[in-house]
Write a structure and sequence with these properties.
By secondary structure, the chain is mostly beta strands. It contains three helices and 39 strands. Helices cover 3% and strands 46% of the residues. It is elongated.
C-alpha cells in the first residue's frame, strides 16, 4: 500500500466545483474524503456496531474482508472482487481494525475494480465477513426494518484523467548499453499486441525490443542503445489502439560510455557516478603522496570542495567541519590500507540542484595537518590536490529548472518544493521508480509534503510543467 501523504499548498489560488452525492450513506459506512469520486484514493470505514448481521457479528476481530463490486450504468454488482480474491490492481480486500472498533481500507475504486474509465459508476456494492467464511457477516439494515440487505454506498462518478505516460525507469542509459526498462502510464490501455514504444530525437528514432504489457498501465521492454547513439534527452513515445499516440518530452537521456580516469590512490563507486549519486569514495593510504604518510593513521579526514564551470574548490567543506547535510567528512577504515566515505556530493556540499559538478577536489589528513596528509602525485613525483572527475549529471542535472528549490535535503518529516512556473503535477518516486505520492495542481508557488511515513532512503521528485516539461530532483529521507 502506498504511503499516506499529506500535501500542503502555499501561496496558491484554488477553485473548487461543489458536487453532492445522490443516495443515503449507510449508518455503518463512512468515506473520506467526503464527495470523493471513483478516481480518488478513499478511506472506506465500516462500523460493525452499526451493521446488520445474519450469522454472527464482526465486532472485536483483528481484521475483516470486503466482498464488493460497483453499480455501473445503473446495474448493481458489476466488476465484483470476492472477499478471498484480489482487486484488478492486485490489492487485497482486507479492512484493518481501528482502535475505536471500526475497520478501514484505503483504495482507489477505479484501480481496484478495473471498470472502463468511461463508465458511469455511482455506487460501491458491498458486504463484509471474517475473511474466511460467512459464519460472521456485516450488512446494511433494510429501510425502516431489522432485516439485512447489501450495502449500496453512494460515490461520485468523477471525470477520468486522460491516458498519459507517467514515467520510464531507468531514465538514463549509456551508448552501447542494453537494459530492461519499465514504462508506466495513467489510465492507459497497454496490451502486448498492438502497443509500440520508441524514443525520438529530431529525425532519429530508437525502438524498444521484446515489449510486453504487464498490465494496462505498465510495459516491460528491452532497450538496446547503439554505440553511436546521439547523446542527450530523447522523447518517449507510446502508441496503442485505444489511447493513440502519447508522448513524454525529454523522458530519457543517452550518455556517452566514457568512464572517467580516477587518481591512482582513489576509487569511486559506482564508476561513472555523478554528483547526484550516492558514491563510495575510497582512499588507499599506501598510494597517496607523500608515500604512505597516512598509512597506519588512527583516523582520516577529508578536506574538499567541487569544480563547477572549470573553477575548482567551490563549496568547501573543511576537514574539521560538517557538510551541508550535517555529515562529518570522516572516512571509515576498511581493515587494510584503505579508508572510505559514503556520501552524495550534491547534498554534502550543498550545491544547488541543476548544477553540473565536474569534479571533487580534496586532500586528506589524520585529523590535523601536522599528523600526516594524503594527496595525489604529479608528473614529477610531487604532491598535488586530488581532482576526482564526475560524470555529467544525466537526467537529474540536465532537466533542472534553475528556479526550482527543494529543502531540507536530507529531510526527516517534511519536504518543501518551491518553483516559479505553472505546474501540472508533483510526483514522488522511490529508488525503484514506484510512485509514493502524486499531487496534481494547476498552479502553486510551493508544495510541502509530509514524508514522515516514508522509509529511509533515496527518492526522486518529478515536477511536470503544463507543457509536459519535466524536472527531476533527488532527496534523501533520513
Amino acid at each position: 500500500m502506498k504511503n499516506s501523504i499529506l500535501v500542503t499548498l502555499m501561496f496558491c489560488v484554488c477553485i473548487f466545483i461543489a458536487q453532492t452525492t445522490t443516495g443515503q450513506m449507510p449508518d455503518a459506512i463512512t468515506i473520506e474524503p467526503e464527495n470523493a469520486t471513483v478516481f480518488d484514493e478513499i478511506t472506506l470505514t465500516f462500523d460493525p456496531a452499526e451493521a446488520c448481521f445474519q450469522s454472527g457479528s464482526l465486532q472485536g476481530l483483528p481484521y475483516i474482508a470486503m466482498h464488493s463490486g460497483v453499480t455501473v450504468n445503473g446495474n448493481t454488482w458489476q466488476n465484483v472482487v470476492a472477499f478471498n480474491a484480489t482487486g484488478a490492481n492486485g490489492q487485497s480486500p482486507i479492512l484493518n481494525a481501528n482502535p475505536d472498533g471500526t475497520f478501514s481500507i484505503v483504495y482507489t475504486p477505479y484501480d481496484f475494480y478495473g471498470f472502463n474509465a468511461g463508465a458511469t459508476v455511482t455506487q460501491i456494492c458491498a458486504v463484509f465477513n471474517n475473511g474466511n467464511d460467512w459464519t460472521q457477516d456485516g450488512r446494511d439494515f433494510q429501510p425502516g426494518g431489522t432485516n439485512c440487505m447489501d450495502f449500496f454506498i453512494p460515490i461520485l462518478p468523477g471525470i477520468p484523467q486522460m491516458p498519459v505516460i507517467h514515467s520510464i525507469v531507468p531514465e538514463t542509459g549509456e551508448q552501447g548499453q542494453s537494459l530492461n526498462v519499465n514504462i508506466f502510464g495513467i489510465n492507459t490501455h497497454f496490451q502486448t499486441s498492438g502497443t509500440a514504444a520508441w524514443l525520438s530525437l529530431a529525425s532519429d528514432s530508437l525502438g524498444f525490443q521484446s515489449i510486453y504489457a504487464v498490465n494496462d498501465t505498465l510495459i516491460s521492454a528491452q532497450l538496446d542503445l547503439p554505440e553511436n547513439a546521439v547523446t542527450g534527452l530523447w522523447d518517449l513515445n507510446v502508441a496503442n489502439p485505444l489511447d493513440g499516440l502519447m508522448t513524454m518530452n525529454s523522458a530519457f537521456e543517452i550518455t556517452d560510455d566514457t568512464i572517467p580516469v580516477y587518481p591512482f590512490a582513489i576509487t569511486l563507486s559506482p564508476a561513472n557516478a555523478s554528483a547526484y549519486d550516492e558514491v563510495t569514495l575510497t582512499l588507499d593510504a599506501k598510494l597517496s603522496c607523500p608515500e604512505g604518510d597516512l598509512f597506519g593513521a588512527d583516523s582520516v579526514m577529508m578536506h574538499s570542495g567541487v569544480t563547477i564551470a572549470g573553477s575548482g574548490w567551490q563549496y568547501v567543506v573543511n576537514f574539521d567541519a560538517l557538510g551541508a547535510n550535517g555529515q562529518a567528512p570522516k572516512l571509515i577504515y576498511n581493515g587494510d590500507s584503505t579508508w572510505s566515505l559514503v556520501f552524495i556530493p550534491l547534498v554534502f556540499y550543498g550545491v544547488p540542484s541543476g548544477t553540473y559538478v565536474e569534479a571533487i577536489n580534496c586532500v586528506f589528513n589524520a585529523g590535523a595537518w601536522t599528523a600526516g596528509e594524503g594527496k595525489d602525485y604529479d608528473d614529477q613525483g610531487g604532491c598535488i590536490d586530488f581532482n576526482i572527475p564526475l560524470a555529467y549529471a544525466t537526467a537529474l542535472g540536465s532537466r533542472m529548472n534553475p528556479g526550482l528549490r527543494l529543502y531540507p535535503n536530507p529531510a526527516k518529516d517534511f519536504l518543501t518544493i518551491d518553483y516559479n512556473q505553472p505546474v501540472n503535477s508533483v510526483i514522488v518516486l522511490d529508488s525503484q521508480g514506484v510512485e509514493a505520492a502524486n499531487c496534481q495542481r494547476e498552479y502553486a508557488a510551493s508544495v510541502t509534503l509530509d514524508i514522515s511515513g516514508f522509509s529511509s532512503g533515496m527518492y526522486f521528485v518529478k515536477v511536470v510543467g503544463v507543457e509536459g516539461e519535466t524536472t527531476v530532483l533527488k532527496f534523501v529521507k533520513e
